[in-house]
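Run Bacterial sugar transferase domain-containing protein through structure prediction, thanks.
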Amino acid sequence: MIRRLLDILIALLGLSITSSILLLVIFLIWKQDKKSPFYMAPRVGRNNTIFRMVKLRSMVSNADSSGVDSTSTNDNRITPIGHKIRKYKLDEITQLWNVLMGDMSLVGPRPNVKNETDSYTPVEEKLLLVKPGITDFSSIVFSDEGDILEGKEDPDLAYNQLIRPWKSRLGLIYIENRSSLLDLQLIFWTVIAIISKPKALKWIVKQLIKMGADTDVVTVSMRKAELQPSIPPGS
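Sure, done. The structure for Bacterial sugar transferase domain-containing protein is below.
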């Protein structure tokens, strides 16, 4: 009940504060090709239910017809204004609407596409027992997901080998330790990460150590070494 109340209050506050910026960006997206500035992204939510996640459109219209789910920074489907949207995470602001609607929470494992959740291991399926969120540990650790996938011949394969194994582990750690206090801390450090990601990573590493996370998870979360192919938890 407290978590839901916080979700509603902070979502309303966030949308109110950013409304002028959103309106400007929405106009600029529409102006470039006269197509809808929104992309209703199908995602898998709690208990394996499908919902439409509201995002500002950062790609050309009908970009998902390519069949590629993961997006690198150099993806030629991204529009000029789309690069700015992705850089400053503006498409995550509109997801506050999903929070108001109850599809998502402010904090929780990031929602995934059905192609990915269909391949979840039994351990990863625990991620679908809670509402997905706008941010969590992995949202900060892998905020540069597009850069990680840049230049990869198969972005989807690279995502599943380099990012998914650790993203899932961090999501499971959050679920095991979640609380209203941790949620507020993650929201705060998500904002700080936009200004100084190293400071946010330092905080995350401290929290993971306190929570007894595996050494490998802690090391990867430092993001000081190049990511190596791994397997998802439960494989």
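The beta strands are 38-44, 50-56, 105-107, 133-135.
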